């Protein structure tokens, strides 16, 4: 910032306050916001913006093959880096294609700015070519959205969009810009700061509540920590580790929270919920104090609400007041930023006279060890048929647990969550809330763009991968060397599993006939395809894929078609009522 | 239980539909909803009459507060407040009914604001149940048309919400 050119630039801005077109303002604002990558797809309404993007190099554009993928890629870029992801789409079908991506980011609270083109102001409401009411359509699946009808409002609106996306409970913000607004001119001034009288998120936890929470935790006989995506989003992993270690409490994560606490640490008891571990679910059901951090008591986590954690007093910390006491009555609610509140909790902890009763804690850990001995994730790998769990386990071993893993949605997602041990936050990227099939491959692209040198693996299935398979073309264009691990069982596996359990083996439409030859398909896109038919092939295929560092490799694992995800809490059952292997 | 919620929000295009959309998306009841700018033209005030359990009302208030354009939310039913609604009602008024309707309107402190040889149009203000009572007092065959504003409400005392 102190280089002579930037000072000159700043002086220029102050002295003559340049006049720019709307399109120039969009690109300049992105630059001033520090945006490095925009994921998008051009079209009529955004041509001025693309024209300007093309004239500069500070903001790079990644051309996807479908707008849904642009938003997923921007989303994953954000999840991996912690920065605001940016997507750019045209009006009409460009915007509607983006909606699934926006809703995905909204459910998982990912900060995004999505810029959509719109027909010229004079044509709005006229059923013009490629017109939809984008602001109307995206209203329920964005944190906020804007239609900019005057170029003079453009810079400040973009500033507000970035501010809203990243602060409080993060989320996607959409800015809809009519084509004529991108052509009109006005003086450019990008505000340094913005303040909205109607939007003041609470950051600091209430000191009295924090003290009350810590006293309750320290007095517990059977304390249990349950943390979610909020800890990852709030960059509060370090503070969490400090607190959990000092208290020597067991900790479980939601699907979205994996990596916040190291999976290899003995205090971590695995994921909880519908496909959580026996020990995690039992510990939640038997604890006397449950500490929920950045988690929202989702139905996939709690099972039957009436029977959830029946003996527990509940402490709930969340940045979003509306998440507190929404599903479960909370005894000590704390609204605030996770990093800040956890820092406050650590401070209070240092001042506490007495910690948890040692004998009680020993007994509690003894009980947990006993539950662990059930070995609920056990599976038997024979010499004939590849078990999907085995593939994930081998991926974990051969990447030394250091890969960024994205997933699609279904059985493979659960196996990835169960068998890939994440020791760090922002390494596990999946659509937890919305459950969007087709997320994995574009998410892997966004992750690879964010970290070009990282090993990025997309764990997917034969159903999900086909929902955005066209992105193999994007991977080729940008030479993204990500690895796809397809657990191919010829079924929509999770649908099949539910049909087996709850619909008397009637497999309505869950068998996927006429699958493409994924190896040849990958080759057709200019990539490398590898296949594993037998258990003995698994390790060599993964080794070969990882050896090809600069190539995108599609690994097609022919896995056991009838394997199920265990444990499983049937919908509506209590967490302790698990179906075990 | 019935609640009257006052919402101050930015007077911007789309703000109303955000609130209305929230109620329908989350399945909250709306009995009535009114909105108009306040003495500060940049701020609108909305009054929503709704009902639900205590848990639901807590969520309604929190979710409303979460909307970016909402400046303040207050449940007026938590304290003493005044509720008023405006009704314009057009009734058949011929023969002996003409006098009867006029009398009834006077009893309810209504005002006749339009007259034809066959009808009266009456303006009536009050809490919702008073307006209901007026309608019930009329012979059902007499009512031609009814338009009601929905409740507006304000807290008692010298303070703003």
UniProtKB/TrEMBL annotation, chain A:
The keyword Amino-acid biosynthesis applies. It comes from the Bacteria. GO terms for molecular function: acetolactate synthase activity; flavin adenine dinucleotide binding; magnesium ion binding; thiamine pyrophosphate binding. Its cofactor is thiamine diphosphate; Mg(2+). Residues 408-556 form the Thiamine pyrophosphate enzyme TPP-binding domain. Gene3D superfamilies: 3.40.50.970, TPP-binding domain (3.40.50.1220). The keyword Magnesium applies. Keywords: Amino-acid biosynthesis, Branched-chain amino acid biosynthesis, FAD, Flavoprotein, Magnesium, Metal-binding, Thiamine pyrophosphate, Transferase. NCBIfam families: acolac_lg. This is Acetolactate synthase. It comes from Acidithiobacillus marinus.
UniProtKB/TrEMBL annotation, chain B:
Pathway: Amino-acid biosynthesis; L-valine biosynthesis; L-valine from pyruvate: step 1/4; Amino-acid biosynthesis; L-isoleucine biosynthesis; L-isoleucine from 2-oxobutanoate: step 1/4. It is an enzyme of class 2 (transferase). Pfam families: ACT_AHAS_ss, ALS_ss_C. One of its GO terms (cellular component) is cytosol. Catalyzes the conversion of 2 pyruvate molecules into acetolactate in the first common step of the biosynthetic pathway of the branched-amino acids such as leucine, isoleucine, and valine. Belongs to the acetolactate synthase small subunit family. Keywords: Amino-acid biosynthesis, Branched-chain amino acid biosynthesis, Transferase. It catalyses: 2 pyruvate + H(+) = (2S)-2-acetolactate + CO2. It comes from the Bacteria. The keyword ATP-binding does not apply. Residues 4-78 form the ACT domain. This is Acetolactate synthase small subunit. Dimer of large and small chains. One of its GO terms (molecular function) is acetolactate synthase activity.
